[in-house]
Amino acid sequence: MADQGLMATSAFLDWHPPTVPGLALERRETLTIASLAALKGKKDALLAAIRSTYGVDLPQRPGRVESAGLAFVWAGPDQWLAISERGQNNRDLEVELKTALAGSASVADLSDGRVILRVSGDRARDVLVKGVPVDLHPRAFRPGDVAITHASHIGVILWQVDEKPTYELAMFRSYADSLAHWLFDAAAEFASAR
Amino acid sequence: MRIACPYCGERSLDEFVYSGDATVKRPDFASPTAAVDFTRYVYERTNPPGEHRELWYHSAGCHAWLVVTRNVATHAISKVESARDVALGEKSQGKDAT
Amino acid sequence: MATPHKYASNSTQPNRLNSGGLIDRSRTLHFTFDGKTYSGHPGDTLASALLANGVKLTGRSFKYHRPRGILSAGSEEPNALVELRSGKRREPNTKATMAEIYDGLSATSQNRWPSLDFDVMSVNSLLSPVFVAGFYYKTFMWPAALWEKLYEPAIRRAAGLGRASDDADPDTYEKATAFADVLIIGGGPAGLMAALAAARTNARVVLVDENAALGGRAIDDGSDIGGNPAHEWLRTVEAELARTETVRILRRTTAFGQYDGNTYGAVERVSDHLSFAANGVPRQRLWRIVAKKVVLASGATERPLVFGGNDRPGVMLAGAVRTYINRFGVVPGHRAVVFTNNDYGATTAAALKRAGAEVVALVDTRPQASEAVKRVAMDTGTKLILSGVVAGAIGGKRVTGANVRTQSGDIVRLECDLIAMSGGWNPNIQLTTHTGGKPTWNDRLHCFLAGTFPPHMTLAGAVAGEFSLAKSLSGGAAAGSAAADQTGFKAVSVIVPKADDESDAITPMWRVDNPDGKAFVDQQNDVAVTDIDLAEREGFRSVEHLKRYTTLGMATDQGRTANVNALAIMAELTGRSIPETGMTLARPPYSPVAIGAFAGHHREKSFKPTRLPPSYKWAKENGCVFVETGLWLRPSYFPRPGEKDWLETVTREVNTVRNAVGICDVSTLGKVDIQGADAAAFLDKIYMNGLKTLAIGKCRYGGMLREDGILMDDGTVARLGENHYFITTTTANAVKVVQHMEYCAQWLWPELDVQIVSATEQWAQYAVAGPKCRDLLQKVVDPKFDISDAGFPYLGVGEISVCGGIKARLFRLSFSGERAFEIGVPARYGDALMRRLMEAGKEFGVCAYGTEALGVMRIEKGHISGPELNGTTTPRDVGLGGMVSTKKDFVGHVLGNRPGLKDPERPALIGFRPVDRSQRLRSGAHFIARDAAPNASNDDGYMTSVAFSPSNGHWVGLGLLKRGPDRIGEIVRAYDPVRGGDTLVEVISPVFVDPEGGRVRG
Q1: Is C910 exposed, middle or buried (0-12, 13-18, 19+ CB in 10 A)?
Q2: Which end of chain A has fewer beta carbons closer than 10 Å to its terminal beta carbon, N or C?
Q3: pTM of the full predicted structure?
Q4: Binary contact (B62, A148; C-beta < 8 A)
Q5: Using CB atoms and an 8 Å cut-off, which of residues 602-631 of chain C contact chain A?
Q6: How many CA atoms lie within 13 A of C290 on its CB side?
């Protein structure tokens, strides 16, 4: 019995998105996520290690960089989230980064602590302004920008992926249904079937 | 009110938690006057009009503690600094002095 | 507007003009007022449609039940308040002047009984000498006890405005945030020019206006702009703004508050003009607008003149008369007297004539005719009465005439059905004062202008004292350009169209001497000149006293048509200047805002977010009863068929844990991952007990103090590696503890190498407790891990795997007093692990248990929890004094040693059981020595936690008792007067089960 494995279940227990032209809502729950924080005095070593291993520079401001499906998202001063699909090889960023960053960063597994919701399309901004108090106008917020803030009173890390625009919101897992419920309500105004 | 977090940019008051006077320094627990020093540190505050240096926590943001220089009569904020940087600066100055 | 309008001949709307206005005559809408059906057109407000239908009486006044009509055409309306809609959507005190009609709208007049036409309470009017200012204070002083039972209910029935619905509001509301380079408040001529000028620079512009249609007084006054009617100019401006991608126009949106940090509150009435909100569309939307620069173009509000009967239906502000004519195509009267102290009266007389009404006389208080007055008198042949006043309006439910006192003092009676009055204009400067700005009095314009106001704000148009259309247009253009320029957008030149530069000459007259009838100042609260006289005589001369004594300005309209007149009258009475008398400052909101708009999405189930623990779905399927703990919904207990109450269920759950095995979701406990070379040193600073000796692979109980020596939180500290710790906090304090740790790491000891990551949600964590716990866990833990007592002793911790390689953490911890583990897996597997454990545990008789059984078992073991960690207790108070380090520096060390906190007389934790074992205990009961009187001076402490102990077969309690540990064996009273409890209890050890602790280890 011990070796039967366990089935992963969604954090969104009540998922019924309205059909809205110009809005796509997508749950991203097949990710591996690790937090990394620079050890005291080792930030340069950490930057160098990430650069040599993954070929990108960790953002020094609220930003997101991506390299071969691996994204680094600023998560506070000298802290980042590393995010990637687990994929067929069941990638585990905690294990991977602990090796790559030994001596320069502390790493913790957050694959399940945060769940990510993708909001994209022409209507994305109209919906998000109903709960996100950050200026998402293209003059103020671009692909690659990150904001740690709240959405409908729920703490989120939010970033823009592309010009569609596509946004992603990372929230603590237990809030998933409450956040989705707000998003569905906020989107209902634009739903096609009245 | 809006506070310009040095890391996140300008955000609304509801993302922050106020936590009091940033000018008091935690005393040495081993000092012979520790009991008096800590009583002052925890309880005694002046409340002058004009500019205060205050500790704020960006609780709904980046979790940075901030030192905010704010005029309590007008709510005008003249400076926002990283509390960690301020504390490290003061500690290194203290070392230089001794 | 050269040709006079004609009344529509066959219309059911006798006062509707057959052309003009922004209404859509091609469509007819039907609505009811007090049950009678009327018709109107899209673009009408309820007020304009009622006037079109010849309805003048719209309500009864607050105190005297006097008949009242429509005074204004805007949000300042004090009189024409109605109940709109019905049933759950019934909304009282809605201004007929702001409510747009739709097909099927139903409105009801307020404050009358049995009907608007015949109101019994209007007898109050005859008693008006009695109902003076301060009447309630003076009359109902004694006996005070009668206030609640008699006076107040009776007064509230007789006086008062509309009735709110008793039901929950069925509509939805939402909130949104907008950002702008330039926010423009007011869509009149100044605001529109500002918007054009700013928009052309490519700045991001938000324009808000409280009306359905833009244009402001340029439309209302029927002006020409650039040689064409204003509505043509408006059409081209709106078209350009609509084309500009960086412009957002919010119509039907009131900017109601100005807050620190360039932040404005505005409410958008999204669906109020519709019979019902479309599916998914909110009724109203509350905007928080953050702007770099703001152009305030909020216009001005006309002042009524204060004369006898100035509240009669048919007495109307001159500007409102023109709004009804020009914006709505309605002429509100056929025979008008115009009464004025400024040049706006003359142009109003001309407008009435153009609309086909007869102007019986232009009564101007000034001795000499100004150029504007002369011109109108000459052009239209209007009879001019200089140095005259309307002493009183004649009529009951509608005006039938005016008694005009001429320069000689003679009274001339003029037949009329409309008195249009203009007492001058008050700039709408409310938003400039919300954060402490102070207005200043202007002696030329005789009004308050903004004095000090926030530096990000510019004023344009009437609000800035630029009353003429030409000045409004040019002022608006300049303000819009400047605002954009200051936000980094290069100004583009804007051609200001030509318009009239009307005269703003005024000679104030604040009240008519010897009025013929009651002269009202605040019409909504029924405050008359005589009340101000009385206040002055009785010494309530300061503005603040005047306001509170007479209730002036305290109605739902905040005295927008009343305050300045009242202030000026008080100044006259006291012989002071107006600035010496004081000024009226406004607080948000500018107009009333529905509470629902402030709540937005956050009501009922969404009042606050709900956090669901990993086993939620399984628990729900299994009939669990949940309890809210903070935002979490935690399993409380799991009733089974046949169990008669919660106590039976909880007793069964406790017995199962004590005799077999139970499973409890403890994922909600705060979990924090702490790493870094100085992690150990850091933890030593924040915990009261020593942690340096904690070995890798072990965990330890720990307590945190506040700097004042009081317990803040408790939990466990597990050491996973050389520089890696994993701590737990209580569910309630998880956020607070992380904040405290960040404070210590960033501010107190920034030199330490420590990294803090909240990991609460990463792990689904279950307590598996009871003598069979290992047998059960053995079935899911991968075989290579030894979880025997030898391989995994009490307080051990390990990173293991379960169910064939799924990473997990195992802790040998017990809160129940039984042998127990806590097992954690990544949260996505939480649901599956719960199901697997329950399946695997069947053979051992497993059950799930919730917070109730958890609480019972911790009380049976004397473990502290929330009721003991209550912000007043020290470690010593709760029996943890021995844990506190005496050597190291940690938060709370020094002040925790204060003599007061170490006083042996302080109540300390101890156990209790009822002397009569059949009696129940109650937390909150106070301890009194057995023979002492039950009073506060004999209070020896209180019961913190109680439970029915299945293991003991009777109730047990924990409590804080003075010198508690020294009083074991003593019998004291548990005195609970609130719930009528007075129980003798025996003081005993707080560990009611397995005091040696053998079960936990073995």
Answers
A1: buried
A2: C
A3: 0.93
A4: yes
A5: 602, 606, 608-613, 616-617
A6: 18
Residues A124 and A87 in one domain: no
Quote the minimal CA–CA distance from C887 to chain B in Å: 10
Candidates C179, C287, C737, C746, partner chain B, best to mutate (most B CBs within 10 A): C746
Choose the mutation target among B7, B68, B84, B90 for the interface with C, i.e. most C CBs under 10 Å: B84
Indicate the average pLDDT of chain B.
93
Q: By the CB < 8 Å criterion, does C739 face chain A? A: no
Tell me the CATH number at A145: 3.30.1360.120
Give CA–CA dist C298/C430, Å, rounded.
9
Q: Which of the listed residues A86, A109, A132 is the one where a domain comes to its end? A: A109
What average pLDDT does range C207-224 have in this prediction? 97
Q: How far apart are CA C929 and CA C927, in angstroms?
A: 7
Confidence check: pLDDT of A70 > 70: yes
For residues A80 and C1, the model is more confident at A80
Measure CB to CB from residue C762 to each of A2, A109, A182 and give the nearest one.
A109
Q: C46, C104 in Cβ contact below 8 A?
A: no
Strands C981-988 and C971-976: antiparallel
User: Rounded to a whole number, what is the distance in Å from the CA of B8 to chain A's nearest CA?
Assistant: 7
ipTM over 0.90: yes
Calpha distance C718→C370 (Å, rounded): 90
- pLDDT band of residue C166 (cuts 50, 70, 90) is confident
Choose the closest CB to C179 out of A11, A79, A137.
Answer: A137
Residue A13 lies in a domain: no
* Beta carbons of C606 and A154 less than 8 Å apart: no
CATH number, position B63? 3.30.2270.10
Is A133 close to B14, i.e. CB distance below 8 A?
Answer: yes
d(CA C219, CA C213): 10
Tell whether A120 and A102 lie within a shared domain: no
* B51: pLDDT strictly greater than 80: yes
Residue B75 to residue C260, Cβ atoms within 8 A: yes
The two three-digit tokens of residue C675, written as one number: 């790493």
- Domain count along chain B: 1
Query: Are A104 and A117 members of one domain?
Result: no
C-alpha gyration radius of chain C: 38
Are A88 and A128 found together in one domain?
no
User: For residue B45, is it within any domain?
Assistant: no
Shortest CB distance from C174 goes to which of A11, A38, A130?
Answer: A130
Q: Does residue B61 form part of some domain?
A: yes
Nearest-by-CA chain A residue for C839: A1
Mean pLDDT of all residues belonging to chain C:
93
Whether residue B43 lies inside any domain: the answer is no
Residue C141 has a pLDDT of 55
For C418, residues 6+ apart whose C-beta sits below 8 A from its C-beta are: C314, C316, C321, C332, C333, C334, C335, C336, C337, C357, C399
Examine residue B33 and state whether it is found in any structural domain, yes or no.
Answer: no
Domain around A145: 24-28+113-188
Q: What is the CATH number of the domain that holds A98?
A: 3.30.70.1520
Q: Is position A47 within any domain?
A: yes
Count how many domains chain A has: 2
Question: Does residue A178 lie in a domain region?
Answer: yes
Domain limit, last residue, from A48, A83, A109: A109
Cα dihedral across residues C569, C574, C578, C581: positive or negative: negative
What are the structure tokens assigned to A160, written together? 């823009």
The predicted model gives A57-83 an average pLDDT of 97
Q: Is A4 a domain residue?
A: no
A103 CB within 8 Å of a chain B CB: no
On chain C, the residues whose CB falls within 8 A of the CB of A175 are 609, 611
